[in-house]
Amino acid sequence: MSETTPAAETRRRRPQSLIAAGNILRFLAKTPTSAFGLLVLAVLILTALFAPLIATHDPYLQDLTNTLAPPDSAHLFGTDELGRDIFSRLVHGSRITLTIIFLVTIVVGPLGLLVGTVAGYFGGKTDVALMRVTDIFLSFPSLILSLAFVAALGPSLNNAIIAISLTAWPPIARLARAETMTFRSADYIAAARLQGASPARIIWKSIVPMCLPSVLIRLTLNMATVILTAAGLGFLGLGAQPPMPEWGAMIATGRRYMIDSWWLVTFPGLAILSVSLAFNLLGDGLRDALDPKQMMKR
Amino acid sequence: MKPLRIEKMSIRFGAVTILPEVSFEVAPGECFGLVGESGSGKSTVLRCASMLLGTWSGDAKVGDRSVREMDLMERCRTLQMVFQDPYGSLHPRHSVRTTLSEPLKIHRLGDTEERLAQAMRDVGLPVDFLDRYPHQLSGGQRQRVAIARALILEPEVLLLDEPTSALDVSVQAEILNLLVRLREEKGFTCVMVSHDLAVIDHMCERFAVMKAGDIVEVLPREAILDGSARHPYAQELIAASLAYEGAA
């Protein structure tokens, strides 16, 4: 039995999670559908990061002498009714989409996880109270509820994000609660209680790691809905406000010219389609990759 | 070393009475066995005594302190438990190091590295197993980790809930020998639940036969072989067990 220095141990310990992450990525890359999802997302993220470099024009620059121009070499995807370059607007719009997804996810994930694990672990009255609140939120269609929130808060991108977050956490909470209930009476939870761990510590250290894979999967699948809801709100004029190049809003304004200028609606539509499809495929892939039986092999 | 005294412990779930009224005493440093068929309430006694179940009446005293009077931290350092199924009692996403260092963090004990290494040596596992995960360990190794976790807080009383029944026979013997050795070294008082009289014979000085939540008879170890049990159910249980051993 050799004595190892603490430094050596941390070096040996850290790779465990890195190896797991690497394995999951490798698993995803091997399946064609989830590989497609990963690829589209990588393109989306790179586009958002380097938007000013990729865009050929200023997304806000109007050119009233060249409105509704069909796609050609100067304007890859054509121009809109104010002569703005659609390609550049799409590229800059990816930033808005990513911001929405990111903000909604970091609000919804922890909130849903917290409500669900607390309800599931404590049970009894806590559970009843938290779950009835969840039920109330679940009993409205999410788009209608976000519409109501945006109408109350006033139309803007930030309010759209808040509204979407408020409507997206209940399914996550339900899921986390169901997961929690399956192992709250497990022996390892009893053992943690016998060691004097506080409920907060048990939830954070023992229960959250067990819920995390399914919550991650659910969040990924949710992102497609989030994108569609954001686009829907944009389309209805309640999300991003003009002149922001939000994809849903672009479709909304392009709708009037749809019959003779197909490119106004088609390209933002394709962008929304491919990104939400990518998230769905990736979520499906993650479900396979994070399956406990698969995890055992790692 | 402190004695453990269970006084008139009783618990019911709704209309079902699990334990009508159970009392027994365990001498300091003794290993006391609880035997009986499935559902006779053996494990429930341990879960009540460790306050995993809180809705019982009666009392459990370690020395002259009742487990109800102790605060959580004191109780954890007095009573610890080893569970039946080593596959379910270790958190699947925690490495052995996390599993063992968690109680040290909760109780703010220093010298973590040293204590971890000592705990591993105590249960006969190599120190570099600290960075393994439960699924990388065999059943016997997992149960050793579970025992190390129970003993790392140096409890006065160790409750063993069928610690070997999920393991195959050769590993059972190893775990039992380990428990015997640790008891000699550390001198804790011990209550062991089992349905296997051979295991009781190996570990315990005295044992109680339970039926439907009641203790029907408390017997010394020798009673397994010399047939001095009085109560018909105890006689039947011992005879059945011996016949099974003979056939096997």
Automatic annotation (TrEMBL), chain A:
<keyword id="KW-0813">Transport</keyword>
<dbReference type="Pfam" id="PF00528">
    <property type="entry name" value="BPD_transp_1"/>
</dbReference>
<feature type="transmembrane region" description="Helical">
    <location>
        <begin position="136"/>
        <end position="154"/>
    </location>
</feature>
<feature type="transmembrane region" description="Helical">
    <location>
        <begin position="35"/>
        <end position="55"/>
    </location>
</feature>
<dbReference type="InterPro" id="IPR000515">
    <property type="entry name" value="MetI-like"/>
</dbReference>
<feature type="transmembrane region" description="Helical">
    <location>
        <begin position="215"/>
        <end position="241"/>
    </location>
</feature>
<feature type="transmembrane region" description="Helical">
    <location>
        <begin position="96"/>
        <end position="124"/>
    </location>
</feature>
<dbReference type="InterPro" id="IPR050366">
    <property type="entry name" value="BP-dependent_transpt_permease"/>
</dbReference>
<keyword id="KW-0812">Transmembrane</keyword>
<keyword id="KW-0472">Membrane</keyword>
<dbReference type="GO" id="GO:0055085">
    <property type="term" value="P:transmembrane transport"/>
</dbReference>
<keyword id="KW-0653">Protein transport</keyword>
<dbReference type="InterPro" id="IPR035906">
    <property type="entry name" value="MetI-like_sf"/>
</dbReference>
<comment type="similarity">
    <text>Belongs to the binding-protein-dependent transport system permease family.</text>
</comment>
<keyword id="KW-0571">Peptide transport</keyword>
<feature type="domain" description="ABC transmembrane type-1">
    <location>
        <begin position="94"/>
        <end position="283"/>
    </location>
</feature>
<keyword id="KW-1003">Cell membrane</keyword>
<dbReference type="Pfam" id="PF12911">
    <property type="entry name" value="OppC_N"/>
</dbReference>
<feature type="transmembrane region" description="Helical">
    <location>
        <begin position="261"/>
        <end position="283"/>
    </location>
</feature>
<dbReference type="GO" id="GO:0015031">
    <property type="term" value="P:protein transport"/>
</dbReference>
<dbReference type="GO" id="GO:0015833">
    <property type="term" value="P:peptide transport"/>
</dbReference>
<protein>
    <submittedName>
        <fullName>D-ala-D-ala transporter subunit</fullName>
    </submittedName>
</protein>
UniProtKB/TrEMBL annotation, chain B:
<dbReference type="InterPro" id="IPR050319">
    <property type="entry name" value="ABC_transp_ATP-bind"/>
</dbReference>
<dbReference type="GO" id="GO:0005524">
    <property type="term" value="F:ATP binding"/>
</dbReference>
<comment type="subunit">
    <text>The complex is composed of two ATP-binding proteins (GsiA), two transmembrane proteins (GsiC and GsiD) and a solute-binding protein (GsiB).</text>
</comment>
<dbReference type="InterPro" id="IPR003439">
    <property type="entry name" value="ABC_transporter-like_ATP-bd"/>
</dbReference>
<dbReference type="InterPro" id="IPR003593">
    <property type="entry name" value="AAA+_ATPase"/>
</dbReference>
<keyword id="KW-0813">Transport</keyword>
<keyword id="KW-0067">ATP-binding</keyword>
<keyword id="KW-0547">Nucleotide-binding</keyword>
<keyword id="KW-0472">Membrane</keyword>
<dbReference type="Pfam" id="PF00005">
    <property type="entry name" value="ABC_tran"/>
</dbReference>
<dbReference type="InterPro" id="IPR017871">
    <property type="entry name" value="ABC_transporter-like_CS"/>
</dbReference>
<comment type="function">
    <text>Part of the ABC transporter complex GsiABCD involved in glutathione import. Responsible for energy coupling to the transport system.</text>
</comment>
<keyword id="KW-1003">Cell membrane</keyword>
<comment type="similarity">
    <text>Belongs to the ABC transporter superfamily. Glutathione importer (TC 3.A.1.5.11) family.</text>
</comment>
<protein>
    <recommendedName>
        <fullName>Glutathione import ATP-binding protein GsiA</fullName>
        <ecNumber>7.4.2.10</ecNumber>
    </recommendedName>
</protein>
<feature type="domain" description="ABC transporter">
    <location>
        <begin position="4"/>
        <end position="237"/>
    </location>
</feature>
<keyword id="KW-0997">Cell inner membrane</keyword>
<keyword id="KW-1278">Translocase</keyword>
<dbReference type="InterPro" id="IPR027417">
    <property type="entry name" value="P-loop_NTPase"/>
</dbReference>
